[in-house]
Amino acid sequence: MLGRSGILRVLPYERLLELASHMRPVDLESEAYLFLQEEPGDSLYLVERGRLRVFRTTPDGREVSLAHLSAGDIIGEMALLDGLERSASVQALEPSRLWRLDRQAFTRVLQEDPRLAVELLELLARRLREADRRLEEAAGGPVVVRLARLLQRMSGGSPASAAVVSLRVTQQELANLAGTTRESVNRGLQRLQRQGIVVRRGRGRLWVDRGRLAAALPADPWVG
User: Fold this and answer.
1) Does the first or last residue of the chain, that is N or C, have fewer Cβ atoms within 10 Å of its Cβ?
2) What is the DSSP annotation of 20-89?
3) Residues 6+ apart with CB under 8 A from 133
4) Secondary element (H or E) of residue 207
5) Type and span of the H or E element at 183
6) DSSP category for residue 161
């Protein structure tokens, strides 16, 4: 699993063994929190199984979803570099298992293997480019397409792993992420529901057919 992860796959087998010896399992029940926004950040987490949501709490108490994560995704790598407080909260959407790597062990390997430092810089650069792309998407393009891309990123994983996935997100959160109005999101969801992509809607939840969604849009290179 470490060998498949984004910033660790460049390490030789011996380094992966060293890191694995420092990692500890973390099991979460559904709705449990991995960590909360503004908590001290001192570790990275690798998702082995399950699904989690990343969200921020606004000053007025609203929760704004940022991403959904699944097996193979990495959480908290920035904390390994700066040790600052968490910029968002992470909550399990279903029973999940993660593996924790503390900053001290990671820093030691980073100092000993410069390839990992280069890979980490490339990862951060890709995230900056992705942030720019999302801003461009929010500034233009059909709302229904932007909405479908958001749902694709949030659903995570491969379409074959679960035909229909439940997403905990409100229409207002989708509107904020897509740079549009709640009314436009509602119309877009109605259209996606007619196409069978959105299977069902409930209060603060959507059920999305990942197979139909993947067929309607190209695979998104960024998850989380």
Assistant:
1) N
2) HHH-EEEEE-TT-EEE-TTSB--EEEEEEES-EEEEEE-TTS-EEEEEEE-TT-EE-HHHHHH--B-SSE
3) none
4) strand 205-209
5) helix 182-194
6) G
Whole-angstrom Cα distance, residue 23 to residue 25?
Answer: 7
CB 79 within 8 A of CB 38: no
Residues found in the chain: 224
- Residues forming beta bridges with residue 85, ordered by sequence position: 40
Cα–Cα distance measured from residue 142 to residue 31, given in angstroms and rounded to the nearest whole number = 33
Q: pTM higher than 0.85 for the full model?
A: no
Hunting for tokens 């010896």 — which residue is that?
A: 21
Q: How many helices (H) and strands (E) does the chain have?
A: 8, 11
Share of the chain above pLDDT 90, in %: 20
A 10 A CB-CB count for 170 gives 18
- Note whether 21 and 38 are within 8 A (CB): no
H or E stretch covering 101: strand 96-102
The residue ranges of the chain whose pLDDT is under 70 are 5-7, 10, 127, 130-141, 157-162, 218-224
DSSP helix/strand/coil, 155:
helix
Q: What is the CA radius of gyration of the chain?
A: 18
| pLDDT for position 131 | 63
The side-by-side arrangement of strands in the sheet containing 52-57 is 33-35, 89-92, 52-57, 63-69
